[in-house]
Amino acid sequence: MDERDNELERILRESAGAEGSLIEILQKTQGIYGWIPEKAITRISEVTGTKPAKILGVVSFYSQFRLKEAGKHMIMLCQGTACHVNGSEGILSALEDELKVEVGETTPDGLFTLESVACLGCCSLSPVMMIDGVAYGGLTPDSARKIARSLEAGA
After folding, report:
1. In this predicted model, what pLDDT tens digit does every residue of 49-70 receive, in sequence order?
2. Structural domains present in the chain
């Protein structure tokens, strides 16, 4: 058992018997691991008495949860109305081509995970993407490629 597993056990002890705490437990679990591994689902099921299928249903329903380990850099490309109207689909195509992954995938080197999100709340910067909590606005397909390349070079 590693440090992350010990942290999960602490969270499960604190949440023991609390009704409706599954989403909070899953959020904290993802905070620990960066994703929700199968061993965590099994342990959450054992402690809470919630069937693994129900836990997987919750995880797959909410886009905030990941069942695969994320890359070092999380790229979230906004697909909200303002971004869509201003060309986010072209930016998505450019990033998929540049990184050689599709939405929801991580590059083989583990450097990038590409996600498409409904809205980042930065409409005035549209089209916009967020990488590691930093917003990049006024994007074009070429500028998005350059940002990814600069992060790759700095990795």
Report:
1. 999 999 999 998 887 888 988 8
2. 3-61 (no CATH), 73-154 (3.40.30.10)
